[in-house]
Amino acid sequence: MTEKLELQPNEPLSVKVERHRTAYLAAINGEGNADMDQEAKARMDIIRHAPSDPGERDQKLLYVAGYLIASKGSLDPEEWNFFCQAPSHCRGIDEQRASGRNQ
What we know:
By secondary structure, this protein is an all-alpha fold. It is built from five helices and no strands.
């Protein structure tokens, strides 16, 4: 029997990543009752995750980037806006654009 896990407000990023990875793989492989809504919810939990330190912030950015590359997808506007509301996430991107290094 599979027990439904409830999200905890202070869950570590690693737990959220594992939940998303499992939901994504189940959805794309058509396993059980998995669907893309579950995957999207798990992905949003990662996007909304508040990193506890710079290392966790980098892990979050790396996971989201890896997911986007692997899935050949993109963030929807709501996800992107939420993701960039945290200045520490986009500061480096904005600084690169301003200096012309991201051409």
